[in-house]
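Hi Q.,

Before the meeting this afternoon, I wanted you to have the adenosine-5'-diphosphate prediction in hand. No need to reply - just skim if you have a minute. The sequence and ligand are here:
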Amino acid sequence: MSIVGAIEAGGTKFVCSVGDDNLTLIDQVSIPTGTPDDTMPAVVDFFKPYLADLKSIGIGSFGPIDIQENSPTYGHFTNTPKVAWQEFDFVGYVKTHLNDIPVAWTTDVNAAAYGEMTQIEGDSLVYFTIGTGLGGGAIQRGQFVGGINHAEMGHILVRKHPEDDYEGYCIFHGDCLEGLACGPAIEGRTGIKGQDLPEDHQVWDFVAYYLAQAAMISDLTLAPSRIVLGGGVMKQEHLIGKIHSEFERLMKDYRPTPPLEDYIVTPALGDNAATIGCLAMAKELTKG
Ligand code: ADP
Ligand code: ZN
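Predicted structure with the ligand bound:
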């Protein structure tokens, strides 16, 4: 049997999985994110029993990370706000401890985009995750969008809602998209976590307005087959409808889009998008 591995490296936990050729999960473990010294030995220990059959591993990681294949620091974290991980050679560590296994390496949100790609006919997709932070990535004609760096669409600038006087939560930009619409920005305005706020609270109108702008920018710049909005904040089921309404209001029939309920959607794979994406990336690598 040939199997593939996945590491979804997040700010609170690392989810490690192995799956078969059909991307069906065989085994999975969740490891709390500590320092590299705490976390990484447990990550490689999870994969060791599978090494005989394990062909490759896909990694989707929090960032920023170096994804330039010809860079001397390819596979490392760069200036991540998680200080213990700055400069850490993630890909190097995995290869060193797991028999130089082939590794596919991208951001967590790109991995989730790759997972959602398995659910559509087209070959271009945009994925935003709205959680503790706000990340955005994209695939265009089957390739991750990016040049000298990976996309960081969570930090785009948006037009401020006229009634929103919140200064914004992003430590770099204040009121960028992340600063205005991530989970802590919702809590920053209200003192209440998003999961505990009533549906009719005005903050949801603000969040819908900003996410609709993100969807509009995605449509206008990348014209993807689908725009997926995931992460904890999107567990608010009323939010997607509000985003559709705002998108229509902002776009003003400029050009046709697919029906919005098929175009701007929550993840078909739910919380598994990044894990399935990592397995799919790993499988792609074994095609040679
Ligand atoms: P992370 O980004 O840390 O991986 P999540 O995607 O779950 O994890 O995001 C956590 C953020 O999402 C928190 O700010 C939390 O308040 C918010 N959140 C989680 N669940 C909900 C919910 N049901 N409704 C609104 N906000 C939520
Ligand atoms: Zn920002």
